[in-house]
């Protein structure tokens, strides 16, 4: 495989499962033989690194002022100069490996002020293309097959950077009336971005999450979402699974559970089929 595929988890809403989705799709892709890098732009709390049990160590490095360079450094005007000084492997201290096989670039407190720093850049192109420039010049050469980016649950300069760099959005949606509205808003958001910046953002994957099919309503929403997003809808939905929540708290994904519950097994299967579909949708399925 040649090019590195990219996608960014985006929805202008908190708590729908963006981080969970990035973590599980990442591991699913890894299990399907892809080399995967996850990038956490979702805020200083380090949720993605927590999901893989590597945040405590990284937090120690942050506290000791040793988490440098970090994800916020690469947005800096001076990044190219810094990278040059760092020598042959400028990302050696930026990328963390995990027990589940995926690599990740953790969040950092510097993300706190990144949105406002970016808003000081007058030139829109300059403001929104920093992440793309970083991925193009420093990450693509590392040979990852897929880069997944976790974004904040809001539309700001940071999420624009993620969408611009990836051009493909992954969206976990819950099943409910409010969520249906949210998905509509998402489509409008993506259209607005496309109009403002003269760039298409493809909604690559809509993944129904936390689905409880014991309720009739959930079934109806599943059908409605499938009708609304015939191309992007994932082959299967992720059920509500207490195991997912518990695993996250233990710093692992549902794939690392030795004795997965029925819902955890169902979630794994859904992530695996979604991952395969995502690769197809991103154009990495082999056929040009
Ligand atoms: N399928 C699921 N079953 C049960 N719990 C889930 C499922 N998916 C996500 N969760 C839980 O829901 C909560 C929110 O998920 P997550 O952190 O992935 O959402 P998010 O969109 O990244 O939120 P934020 O906008 O705050 O970053 C977490 O506690 C997570 O463990
Ligand atoms: Mg999150």
Overall description:
The protein contains twelve helices and seven strands. The chain is an alpha/beta fold. It is globular and about 60 Å long. The mean pLDDT is 93. The chain has one domain: Rossmann fold (3-Layer(aba) Sandwich), CATH 3.40.50.300. Strands 3-4-2-5-1-6-7 form a seven-stranded mixed beta sheet, sandwiched between helices. Strand 3 and strand 4 form a beta hairpin. Helix 1 packs across helix 12 and helix 7 packs across helix 8. Helix content is 46%, strand content 11%. The structure holds adenosine-5'-triphosphate and magnesium ion. The site of magnesium ion has 4 residues, from helix 1.
A few lines on this structure:
By secondary structure, the protein is of the alpha/beta class.
Fold blueprint:
Layout: E1 5-9, H1 18-31, E2 36-40, H2 47-51, H3 55-63, H4 79-86, E3 96-97, E4 103-105, H5 111-119, H6 124-128, H7 130-139, E5 146-150, H8 157-166, E6 168-173, H9 177-197, E7 202-208, H10 216-228, H11 242-249, H12 262-281
Parallel strand pairs: 1-5, 1-6, 2-4, 2-5, 6-7
Antiparallel strand pairs: 3-4
Helix pairs in contact: 1-12, 7-8
The site of magnesium ion has 4 residues, from helix 1.
């Amino acid at each position: 495989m040649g090019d590195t595929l990219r996608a960014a988890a985006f929805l202008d809403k908190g708590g729908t499962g963006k981080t969970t989705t990035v973590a599980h799709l990442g591991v699913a892709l890894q299990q399907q033989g892809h080399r995967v890098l996850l990038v956490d732009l979702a805020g200083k709390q380090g949720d993605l690194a927590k999901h893989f049990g590597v945040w405590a160590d990284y937090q120690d490095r942050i506290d000791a002022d040793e988490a440098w360079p970090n994800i916020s450094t690469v947005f800096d005007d001076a990044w190219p100069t810094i990278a040059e000084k760092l020598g042959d492997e400028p990302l050696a201290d930026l990328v963390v490996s995990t027990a589940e096989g995926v690599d990740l670039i953790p969040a950092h407190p510097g993300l706190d002020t990144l949105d406002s720093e970016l808003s000081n850049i007058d030139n829109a192109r300059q403001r929104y293309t920093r992440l793309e420039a970083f991925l193009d010049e420093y990450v693509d050469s590392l040979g990852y097959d897929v880069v997944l980016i976790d974004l904040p649950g809001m539309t700001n300069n940071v999420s624009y950077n993620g969408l611009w760099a990836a051009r493909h959005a992954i969206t976990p949606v819950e099943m409910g009336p409010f969520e249906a509205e949210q998905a509509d808003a998402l489509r409008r958001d993506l259209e607005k971005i496309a109009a403002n910046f003269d760039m298409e953002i493809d909604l690559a994957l809509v993944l129904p999450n936390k689905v409880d099919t014991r309720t009739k309503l959930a079934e109806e929403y599943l059908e409605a979402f499938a009708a609304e997003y015939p191309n992007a809808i994932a082959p299967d939905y992720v059920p509500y699974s207490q195991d997912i929540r518990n695993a996250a708290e233990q710093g692992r994904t549902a794939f690392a559970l030795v004795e997965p519950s029925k819902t955890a097994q169902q979630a794994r299967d859904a992530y695996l089929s979604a991952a395969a579909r995502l690769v197809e949708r991103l154009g990495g399925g082999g056929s040009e």
